[in-house]
Amino acid sequence: MESRTLVLAGVGGQGVMMASRILTEALFHMGYDVKQAEIHGLSQRGGSVMTYIRWGEKVWSPISGEYGADFLVALEMLEAVRYLKLLKPSGAVVLNLYRFVPMSVSSGLRGPDGKPYSYPEDVPSVLKGNVERVFVIDGLKVAMDVGNARVMNVVVVGAASRVMGLDREVVRATVEKRVPQRYREVNLRAFGMGWELVREVR
């Protein structure tokens, strides 16, 4: 099998690292050689956080470079736009419909052209204009529906696993193993709902 690459991005506090470790471990249990690279931004301040995961029969490096990734999974919408250049035009985006307004926008800072920074409008359409397939999930709403906003990242793991064609039961078992026992039930519900409710933008 030719190696495939995932870029997983979000902001600090969203559980990007936990999501990355669940997917990495699940891919390993599915029999792949897996490499992971973590790039931490200002994670404690809501800054950008990104990881690479690469898997296949034999993988030498986790990093694929610009326009080299097969999948981009974004827990926050602006991060999908930020890292879009890492995705192949034939790739797929899994977009969590969650908006975190950065300090540069909320404080009214202006760019070099003198115009105030702004949050992009209609991010799914922006993405759809650049890549073949865009999938969306309202992770926060689903997480609230199952009873805990903090499991939003596991909702996205469920959505991403389906789009990536992973073995549902292997990923589910990895979630069960990875999360604390007292939060196991809500995380498993979050994973299942993410798998079921992800939809493609047409």
Structure description:
By secondary structure, the protein is α/β, with parallel strands linked by helices. 38% of the residues lie in helices and 24% in strands. The chain contains 8 helices and 7 strands. It has helices at residues 16-29, 77-82, 103-106, 123-128, 139-146, 152-164, 168-178, 184-197; strands at residues 4-11, 33-40, 48-56, 69-74, 87-96, 133-137, 199-200. It has a 7-stranded mixed sheet. α2 links the parallel β4 (69-74) and β5. 41% of the residues are buried. The model has no long low-confidence stretch (mean pLDDT 92).
Tell me the layout of helices and strands:
Layout: E1 4-11, H1 16-29, E2 33-40, E3 48-56, E4 69-74, H2 77-82, E5 87-96, H3 103-106, H4 123-128, E6 133-137, H5 139-146, H6 152-164, H7 168-178, H8 184-197, E7 199-200
Parallel strand pairs: 1-4, 4-5, 5-6
Antiparallel strand pairs: 1-3, 2-3, 6-7
Helix pairs in contact: 1-6, 1-7, 5-6, 5-8, 6-7, 6-8, 7-8
